[in-house]
Amino acid sequence: MSRRRQLYEGKAKVLFEGPEPGTLVQYFKDDATAFNNQKRGVITGKGVLNNRISEYLMTRLNEIGVPTHFLRRLNMREQLVKEVEIIPLEVVVRNVAAGSLSTRLGIQEGTALPRSIVEFYYKNDQLGDPMVTEEHITCFGWASPPEIDEIMSLALRVNDFLSGLFLGVGIRLVDFKLEFGRYWEGEEMRIILADEISPDSCRLWDLATNDKMDKDRFRRDLGNVAEAYQEVARRLGILPEGGPRDMKGPAIMQ
């Protein structure tokens, strides 16, 4: 197993120095967290599935001209990505009332929204990722007005494409979280999609039954979490042959 310098470890992924300048290796863990890390667990095979699902969705987005950090999958749990300067915002796109939106506004979960809503949350675990407005974002310099416009445009474009893609395999895209970064090519900078798109970061409901097929099964102790992720991968036609297999992480260079 190759030894790599670890740069960052989050709740569900580890970032390592990439083989070439300007690249990173993104490793997907089986760890699961909820409620700002208050609930923790391990879902065997989740990292393998999320790696494949995110690879597939990022590749499809690249094909339609949405710029992403994804370059290629390296193995069952790792993918090569472009190094970006992450904008400290979680961008949530909502199509159906669920989760915190239902709680905050008293809207029954499952209510279709009149139009898609884009929300911003400040990425800060200690503060619980608070919801913020464009005024906060520009005041504190997290992103400029043109960057916010680009982020919203890309987020809605991703939503349109993914909503149709999932609808085609009998899944309703209720809401999802995106992250964006600044990618530099010489002196030119552009905003590109980063992080991942998977059942960890999306609410996915079966179109016929409304059964949850995402991390809410872990949050709400519904059981069969791995099976739900496998079903998403199966419908997308990307379930690894023989199902998800475990694979140890790379040795870390101190």
Q: Could you explain how this protein is built, in words?
A:
- It contains six helices and 15 strands.
- By secondary structure, it is an alpha+beta fold.
- Strands 8, 9, 10, 11, 12, 13 and 14 form a seven-stranded antiparallel sheet that branches. A six-stranded mixed sheet has the order 6-7-3-2-1-15, covered by helices on one side. A two-stranded antiparallel sheet has the order 4-5.
- The longest helix has 23 residues, at about 145-165.
How is the main sheet built?
7 strands, antiparallel
What is the CATH architecture annotation of the largest domain?
2-Layer Sandwich
Order of helices and strands: EEEEEHEEEEHEEHHEEEHHE
Query: Which word captures the global form?
Result: globular
* Structural domains: how many: 2
Number of E strands: 15
Radius of gyration: 18 Å
* Share of β-strand residues: 25-35%
Determine the mean pLDDT.
92
CATH C-level name of the largest domain:
Alpha Beta
Assembly state here? Answer: single chain
How far from one another are the termini? Answer: 15 Å
- What is the number of helical segments per DSSP (H or I, 4+ residues)? 6
The CATH homologous superfamily of the largest domain is called ATP-grasp fold, B domain
Please summarize what this structure is:
The chain has about 250 residues and is α+β, with helices and mostly antiparallel strands. It is built from six helices and 15 strands.
